[in-house]
Amino acid sequence: MKLRTSLLSFTALAALGTPVLANCPAATVADPMGLSPVHPQQLELAELQDAASCELNFAENPAIAELNGRILGNAELAPVAERLPAEPLVVMPYDTVGQYGGVITGLSKGTESGTSDLLSVRHVNFVRYADDLQTVVPNIAKAWSWNDDYTELTIVLREGHKWSDGEPFTAADVEFWMNDVIYNTDVYDQAPNRWLFAGEKAQVEAVDATTVKFTFPVPTPGILNRFAVDYGQPFQPKHFLGQFMPKHNENAEALAQEYGFENAAAAVDFYYGGSDWKDVPSPLLKDADKAAKIGRAVAPTLESYIVVDENAEGRKLVANPYFHQVDTAGNQLPYINEIVETYVGDKEVQNLKIMNGDVVWKQQAVFLEDFPLLKENEGKGGYTINFAPTFGENVFYSFNRTHQDPVLREIFNDIRFNRAMSKAMNRDEINEIVYLGQGTPMQGVPAEPKTVSFVTDEVLNRDIGYDPEGAKALLAEMGLTDADSDGTLERPDGKPLVIRLVYSSQGVPVKMQELVRDYWSAVGVRVDLKEVTSDEYRASGNNNDLEVTTWKYDGNAGPTISQDVTVFIPPFGDVFNPGTGFDWAAWKTTGGAEGIEPPEDIKKLWDLSEKFIQVEMGTDASNKLGAEIVQIHTDNMLKIGTVGDIVSPFLHRNDLQNVKPIKSKTYDFYWTYPYRPSQWWLEQ
Q1: How are beta strands 305-311 and 314-319 bridged, if at all?
Q2: What SS3 state is found at 49?
Q3: Distance CA 321, CA 80 (A)
Q4: Other CB atoms within 10 Å distance of the CB of residue 468
Q5: What's the average model confidence in pLDDT over 392-414?
């Protein structure tokens, strides 16, 4: 049955002689009322109406007009039925149909720092993982299909879907994103590697308003996984950003200059930020007066919330009045009116706010070392703290193989040094002190062991036993001695062997850094420890200035590595999680004109990784390639692991409803995204 018919009132239907259908069952996951959805916990509108022989009527948040008034540039709202797509996604709440109102209060460390859990609350993409973390289900996309060799992906969108400003969202916005943003040299000097396939561009074609076809130069079976877990969104508002592109508006340059930009490209950068990452500084943070002059605070979005205010202290968001989801009672989602995100850099202040009951949801950067304190204060703060598995979250130490200091570079490239540093660490003690005995000591590997079958126990246990005497023997074998008996070894040039360990508490537990400092100092490698902000850490790492990088493995679970080989190849990380071997990467990207030529086995990683993502995950071919990649990584000890299989705390205030225990607290599935936060609600 067409939605436009369903928008008529029962009275009007009766007057037309149309049979009046029953109300649709307000089904929940707890009580599905006989519904058996094709996809877990959600239905398409026609699926619901056909299954229950019902007509779904729509309702809106009573405060939506006021919230919409805070979105700079938005016009007055039409009725909710006209704002929803003709084919809205129907979400089954976990426990109860919710109530409107309230504010999600959360904490981050700053823009682009510790914000992913809150970003994931509002996030959308073509698809997502269901909360079983195994099943890919529709979201922005209604359906999809592949050709036989995984080189053509056709995605079907929702008819009548609208951007947050009320303008139509169509396949042209997907085509625009790839062709006019990602592959536009005015936006990116070079197309991001993550959107190149065997070094070549994909083709994206808007077949019609609701059909878009991706054509890849090589088989790309994992790309749907990327859309399910990726922070980037493969659509941009052509009607808005296109006005600043000469290709789409012959007056683009004049318009940009009228608004005070140097040129049209600067206007695009002002709103797009040079990244699909939604956490780049917003126009409000860059120049709120200029945004006001243009009449748009941020670019239109499809997310459940839109930013309406941001400064150095935090940001505020309001519910998107055009969001494409409803519950089984026909209420437009999200239920909760606002998100208020406060920037708090200090961990002790963060804990204090949590214990005072000021935080509705906190998932990222809550460490096990703080669990006893936070657990003790649950009653006082009116919150519940639980554990969740953390796929891949094994904190690693990676010595800079292309360090600018040639003496350190030679030391760091000696496998004996890396083995010594691994043997010097007491992982059992780390597990007890940092992880409350909840983890398993293991070596660092670029593929999360629980989500793939090609990582062996032999690899995970290599050189993880606490053996300081063995570490000292390896260092002596290298010729590193303590000539002046001051407890610190000397480098070959006579200087003391001192390593500066810079870290950010966003990515690693503070106590672990103190323990590792003492372990390494005890075998003669003195460590100077320094904590910095995540922004400072990332800037130094990406500038190849760090002597050792330390963070937790991110992006190494099966769904991620099936389509993104960043952790496999130099520099074995990205801008948010810098790795090692930056000059190896430069050698590759410049064809040997710059950088440092890597060893032969490191060179193999590029070819192996390219082949890996062209075959289906879990096949014999995939497992063989994956095992060879892991072998090269661990033979070279590119990232020395500490403790894996850990759990990590997450918490929510007790007035937050429809919260399901999460099966993984990890970036690999994009934090909260699988757990459908649009159906959260707050007791008023």
Answers
A1: antiparallel
A2: helix
A3: 8
A4: 17
A5: 94
- How many other C-beta atoms lie within 10 A of the C-beta of residue 287? 13
Which two structure tokens, joined as six digits, stand for 441? 């000591």
pLDDT digits (tens, 9 = 90+) for 418-474: 999 999 999 999 999 999 898 999 999 999 998 899 999 999 999 999 999 999 999
Measured between its terminal Cα atoms, the distance across the chain in Å is 36
* 288 burial via Cβ count (<10 Å: 0-12, 13-18, 19+): middle
Predicted confidence at residue 669, as pLDDT, reads: 86
Which residues are within 8 A (CB) of 592 and not within 5 positions of it... i.e. 6 or more apart? none
How many angstroms separate the most distant Cα atoms in the chain?
A: 100
CB 560 within 8 A of CB 222: no
The residue with tokens 């200090």 is 346
∠ CA 38-337-98 to the nearest 5 degrees?
45
H or E stretch at 417: helix 415-423
Distance separating alpha carbons of residues 550 and 578, to the nearest angstrom: 9
Smallest CA-to-CA distance from 574 within 284, 230, 294 is with 230
Identify the H or E element spanning 381: helix 378-381
* Rounded distance between C-alpha atoms, residue 421 and residue 517, angstroms: 11
For residues 139-150, average pLDDT: 97
Sign of the dihedral defined by the CA atoms of residues 599, 604, 609, 610, in that order:
positive
Q: Which pTM was predicted? A: 0.85
Contact partners, residue 136, CB within 8 Å, separation at least 6 = 127, 128, 129, 130, 224, 225, 228
Return d(Cα 488, Cα 588) in angstroms, integer. 37
For residue 32, the one-letter residue type is: P
Identify the CA nearest to 642 among candidates 417, 464, 420.
464
User: How far is 531 from 101, CA to CA, in rounded Å?
Assistant: 40
Closest CA to 20 of 29, 28, 12: 12
Please state the φ and ψ torsions of residue 636, each to the nearest 5 degrees.
-95, -5
- Closest residue by Cα to residue 548 from 446, 434, 637, 644: 637
Tell me: pLDDT of 16 over 80: no
Cα 598 → chain centroid: 30
Neighbouring C-beta atoms of residue 591, cutoff 10 Å: 7
Distance of CA 385 to the CA centre of its chain: 22
**Which residues does 236 contact at the CB level (< 8 Å), separation at least 6?**
173, 176, 177, 181, 272, 299
Beta strands, E only, 60-164: 89-91, 103-108, 127-129, 136-138, 141-146, 152-157
Judged by DSSP in three states, 182 sits in helix
* pLDDT at residue 376 tops 90: yes
Beta bridge partners of 106: 341
Write a three-state SS string for 269-320. Answer: HHHHCCCCCCCCCCHHHHHHHHHHHHCCCCCCCCCCEEEEEEECCEEEEEEC
Q: pLDDT tens, 634-674?
A: 999 999 999 998 888 899 999 999 998 888 777 778 889 99
The CA–CA distances, whole Å, from 595 to 62, 88, 141, 403 equal: 59, 51, 42, 11
- Phi/psi of residue 355, each to 5°? -65, -20
For tokens 């019902």, name the residue.
Answer: 54
Alpha helices in 114-162 (DSSP H): 116-122
